Amino acid sequence: MHHQTWIFIALILVSTVSTVFAADLKTAWEEVEKAKQDGLPQTAIEKLKPIIEKAIVDKNLGLSVRAVCEKVVMEGNIQGNKAEEKITMLEKEIDGLPAEIRPLLKVVLARWYWHYFQQNNWRFLNRTATQGLDEKDFTTWDLPKLFAKIGSLYEEALKDEETLKKTPLSTLKDFLEPGNQPAELRPTVFDFFAYQLLEFYTSGEQAAAKPQDAFEMPAGSAALGSADEFLAWVPTTPDTDSPKLKALQLFQKIMKFHKEKGDDSAFLDADLHRLRWARSAVVGDGASDRFLNQLKVIAK
User: Fold this and answer.
1) Of the residues 184, 202, 233, which one is the last residue of a structural domain?
2) How far from chain centre, in Å, is Cα 285?
3) What is the pLDDT of residue 129?
4) pTM of the predicted model, to two decimals?
């Protein structure tokens, strides 16, 4: 039931030139690639700078962010090819760029932080909050602090929610490669950002950072109820930072958005994702039966 409408390329930074680029930009990217192949990373960086400037002037959000990420990666390679240094460099780069491209860069930065954790999880899993902590060096942080940073980046990116909801995902065509699912399942930039954040909040790694009084969802709760029951649910818990609670609220936000717009495909897709997540996230008996009952209702 998983639908991957778009492939997120910011991490791997593919080097092929998209056919959607204008001819001059296509030529510019080819010159960047040639410099890289010739072993001239500094030359490639210099050739990227006018691409970034033109993309910003043209308000091409996807291309500008892609070019900035490419530039940071190459600068990082020159400095020693350390992932943590590229993260720090991208964080500094964001501050000097126009406000309209910062949200997407923050999504990229959140992905880089998370990817770094996944590659170095042994550094974080058994670390206490005070052990060797350096506020400016995220490699010394404990897991809750690192995850709080990642979550805050995603949430900052989603802050201007109404604008993101009005921005078609096609705006990012120079940043994303189309997947094999219908575009109407992720019609807006809001959807793309929200599902990136959902992937983070519903990941299995979140369990390692949860507090003692963590929010739990009983199997008999509205988590596995009908769509209307789920949307009307307002759970109460002292654990307001719970990733489960935040995932629940984000599912509600996505589903309400598409219900109000009459986007049946996007609404149904979100509801199916919600049910699949809830089946594994609830506690107590009866989850599988309730999950199957809801699938039967949807099928009818």
Assistant:
1) 184
2) 32
3) 63
4) 0.87
